[in-house]
Design brief:
Shape: globular
Strand order of the largest sheet: 1-20-19-18
Helix content: under 10%
Distance between the termini: 11 Å
C-alpha cells in the first residue's frame, strides 16, 4: 500500500466553548453524492471532550463546507462514566436507526483515567441521545481495567467488535499495556467479551494500541489502528476470520511527514471507500491538537 496525503482538513482553535482545542478520532459518514460528515472529538477549556461534526466534499476535502453549531454528543453530568468526556467511536445502523458507540471518560486517583463504552441514538436534528446513563460495555473479569474506542461491524447474523483494553494499569500513562481485543454477539446492544486478544504487542517497547478500523475486502479482513512505544504510528493487520489477526505494519504505506502538523506522530486512522477509491482520515501531532487530515490510497480498488 501507498497513501498520498491530501492535506489538513481541520484544526480546532477556539471555534466554540466546546471546541477550544483538539480534533481527534475523525470518522467519516456518507451523506449523499460526494458529501461526507466528519465526526470528531474536541475539548473545552476544562479538557472535557465532546463529539462534534463538520461537512466536506470529498472531491475537495480540505475545504470545510460547514461546522455544526453544537456538539452531537456532550459529556455526562458529574459522577457518570462519561463526565470527563465523550469521544468518537463508531456508527452502526440497526433496523433503520443509526447508533453511535462512544468512549466515555472518567478520571480516577489511583490511575490516570477509567474508560467505558457508551451508546447513543441519532435524533432528527442530527444530534445523538444517550440510550443509557450507564455504559453498554464496562469493566468485567475479561476486561478489568479500562476499555477504549470500539469498531463494530455486522457479517451475516454476527456482530463483531474490536476495542481497546488494558492488561494492566499504573500511575503513569506508559504503564497502561493497552491492546486490541475482539468480541462477537448476535445482539448489537448486549456484549459479553471473553478477553480474546486480537493484536499482540510486537515488542517490549510497545505499550498501547488503539482505535481500530476494520474493512472486509473479498480476500480478507483488514484493520488499521494506532500503536505506540516512543511515539504513535499507524499500523495494519489482516485476518481471514475477523478474530485472529497478523500484524503487517511495514505494509501500511503511511508515516509522519518531514515537517508540519503530522511530523511527530500519526494515529487514529479511519479508512473508508467512495466511488472506487479508498481514503484515510487520521490525526497528527499530540493526539489531535494539530487537527486531522486525509490521505488517498494511490492505486484504485
Amino acid at each position: 500500500m501507498k497513501w498520498e496525503k491530501q492535506g489538513l482538513i481541520f484544526c480546532a482553535d477556539n471555534h466554540a466553548p466546546w471546541m477550544v482545542s483538539h480534533a481527534s478520532n475523525p470518522v467519516a459518514r456518507h451523506v449523499h453524492d460526494d458529501i461526507y460528515k466528519i465526526y470528531f472529538s474536541s475539548r473545552n477549556k476544562h479538557n472535557q471532550s465532546s463529539i462534534c461534526c463538520l461537512e466536506i466534499d470529498i472531491k475537495s476535502p480540505t475545504e470545510v463546507l460547514s461546522i455544526f453549531d453544537k456538539p452531537v454528543l456532550s459529556p455526562g453530568e458529574c459522577g457518570l462514566f462519561d463526565d470527563a468526556g465523550a469521544s468518537m467511536g463508531c456508527f452502526l445502523d440497526v433496523s433503520g436507526e443509526t447508533y453511535l458507540y462512544y468512549l466515555g471518560w472518567t478520571l480516577t486517583k489511583s490511575a490516570p483515567w477509567h474508560n467505558s463504552i457508551g451508546l447513543a441514538k441519532e435524533k432528527a436534528d442530527g444530534t445523538f441521545s444517550k440510550v443509557s446513563l450507564a455504559p453498554i460495555v464496562d469493566r468485567s473479569d475479561a476486561d478489568p481495567f479500562s476499555l477504549s474506542y470500539p469498531w463494530i461491524m455486522k457479517s451475516g447474523e454476527t456482530y463483531h467488535m474490536w476495542y481497546g483494553s488494558n492488561l494492566s494499569w499504573g500511575h503513569e500513562q506508559k504503564d497502561m499495556a493497552h491492546l486490541i481485543k475482539y468480541a462477537s454477539s448476535y445482539d448489537p446492544f448486549c456484549w459479553k467479551p471473553t478477553g480474546k486478544i486480537a493484536l499482540e504487542f510486537r515488542n517490549t517497547e510497545e505499550y498501547a494500541m488503539s482505535k481500530p478500523c476494520v474493512i472486509r475486502d473479498p480476500e480478507c479482513w483488514k484493520m488499521w489502528y494506532s500503536y505506540r512505544g516512543h511515539a504513535y504510528r499507524i499500523g495494519y493487520a489482516e485476518s481471514m476470520d475477523g478474530a485472529n489477526w497478523t500484524r503487517k505494519d511495514s505494509e501500511v504505506g503511511i508515516t509522519v511527514s518531514s515537517e508540519g502538523w503530522d511530523s511527530e506522530t500519526v494515529e487514529y486512522p479511519n479508512v473508508f471507500d467512495h466511488k472506487g477509491k479508498r481514503y484515510m482520515l487520521y490525526n497528527g501531532n499530540r493526539y489531535g491538537l494539530t487537527g486531522f487530515g486525509i490521505a488517498q490510497l494511490v492505486e484504485s480498488l
